[in-house]
């Protein structure tokens, strides 16, 4: 079987990966499309740092902490697929049914996240295993390439749900990469009628407008807080200094939602947030209900994800796509179509 794997920090093409065999409760599927996520790019470049941070973290799941960086790593967690066959004693959708799922595999030895693994296949492969109880049928007629973007859109929906934003409030989204625009789309779908977005990239500002932002700003022209008075701020950038800048500049009572993943140590001045009684909410992933709601929003046409797709490659083009995605003016989301 063909697949693209991470080896020594680079994505390489293989045509000798054994076909996976479904066990009880599992379903063998053929991958139809898989989006390349920014977290995959970061893991390829900084996998050792990510694993070290995961191992050091207490009180939270430590999935991926035992990955061997010296062996091939399977990735790809934004996918759509087609049912091929079910494992022993497993009831599921008929063969040929288009499906998607939250990226988790239920196995005999526990739960295997479909994110980074030396053994569990992800969407950068011709075939993979999914869990029958977690499968969602893709509504009839929905382009499977669009269904593959359910996962990143669910991340945006989760951030919006955690923010408690209501239609009459102004929302400011910092950063218009895939997660930023997912937040913008979810805000617009929730009826928020004043969504402001910022990004240094003109291409991404244009995409933000397409996805529902009412106003877009270039941070190079000055702080957005000079012209915007938000009630909710979403950090979708994830670089040191953003949180502290928001605490310093945002109005009294602002709610800050941190969705951008910063892997470096950061410094904040708690006094700013204390003096202005601000709240800070960190967010991660989504719930199964939010995943299903995102699929419905795409299928019903409330959210059009087509503008996010800026390229498609086969499994032999994943390595080049990883390099291409470092240019924010050129790409937003590249799909892998095995």
Task: Please characterize this protein's 3D structure.
The protein is an alpha/beta fold and 338 residues long. Helices cover 27% and strands 25% of the residues. The strands form 5 sheets. Strands 3, 5, 6, 10, 11, 18 and 19 form a 7-stranded mixed beta sheet that branches. Helix 3 crosses helix 4 and helix 3 packs across helix 8. It is globular. The termini are close together.
Write a short abstract of this structure.
With 338 residues, the protein is α/β, with parallel strands linked by helices. The chain is built from 9 helices and 19 strands.
Proportion of helical residues: 25-40%
Strands, count? 19
Average pLDDT for all residues: 94
Can you write the helix and strand succession as a string?
EEEHEEEEEEEEHHEHEHEEHEHEHEHE
Euclidean distance between termini CA atoms: 11 Å
| Count of runs of 4 or more consecutive helical residues | 9
Structural class: alpha/beta
Q: Which descriptor suits the 3D outline?
A: globular
Largest sheet: 7 strands, mixed
Pfam family, one: ADH_zinc_N
Keywords: Oxidoreductase
Domain Alcohol dehydrogenase-like C-terminal: 178-299
Domain Alcohol dehydrogenase-like N-terminal: 23-139
Key traits:
338 residues; alpha/beta; seven-stranded mixed beta sheet; 9 helices
């Amino acid at each position: 079987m063909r697949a693209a794997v991470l080896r020594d920090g680079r994505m390489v093409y293989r045509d000798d990966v054994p076909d996976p065999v479904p066990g009880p409760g599992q379903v063998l599927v053929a991958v139809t499309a898989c989006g390349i996520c920014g977290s995959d790019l970061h893991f390829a470049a900084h996998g050792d740092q990510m694993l070290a941070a995961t191992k050091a973290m207490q009180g939270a799941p430590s999935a991926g902490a035992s990955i061997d960086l010296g062996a091939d790593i399977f990735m790809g967690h934004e996918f759509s697929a087609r049912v091929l066959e079910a494992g022993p004693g497993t009831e599921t959708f008929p063969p040929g049914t288009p499906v998607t799922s939250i990226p988790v595999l239920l196995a005999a030895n526990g739960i295997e996240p479909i994110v980074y693994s030396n053994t569990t296949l992800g969407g950068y492969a011709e075939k993979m295993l999914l869990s029958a109880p977690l499968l969602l049928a893709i509504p009839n007629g929905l382009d499977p390439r669009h269904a593959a973007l359910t996962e990143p859109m669910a991340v945006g929906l989760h951030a919006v749900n955690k923010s408690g934003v209501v239609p009459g409030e102004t929302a400011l989204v910092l950063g218009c990469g895939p997660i930023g625009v997912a937040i913008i789309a979810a805000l617009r779908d929730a009826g928020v009628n004043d969504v402001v977005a910022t990004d240094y990239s003109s291409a991404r500002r244009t995409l933000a407008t397409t996805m529902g932002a009412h106003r877009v700003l270039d941070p190079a022209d000055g702080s957005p807080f000079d012209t915007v008075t938000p009630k909710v701020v979403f950090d979708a950038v994830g670089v040191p200094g953003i949180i502290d800048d928001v605490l310093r500049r945002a109005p009294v009572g602002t709610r800050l939602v941190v969705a951008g993943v910063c892997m470096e140590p950061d410094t904040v001045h708690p006094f700013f947030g204390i003096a202005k009684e601000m709240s800070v909410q960190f967010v991660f992933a989504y719930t199964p209900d939010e995943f299903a709601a995102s699929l419905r929003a795409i299928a019903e046409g409330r959210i059009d994800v087509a503008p996010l797709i800026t390229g498609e490659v086969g499994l032999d083009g994943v390595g080049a796509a990883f390099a291409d995605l470092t240019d924010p003016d050129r790409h937003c989301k590249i799909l892998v179509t095995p």
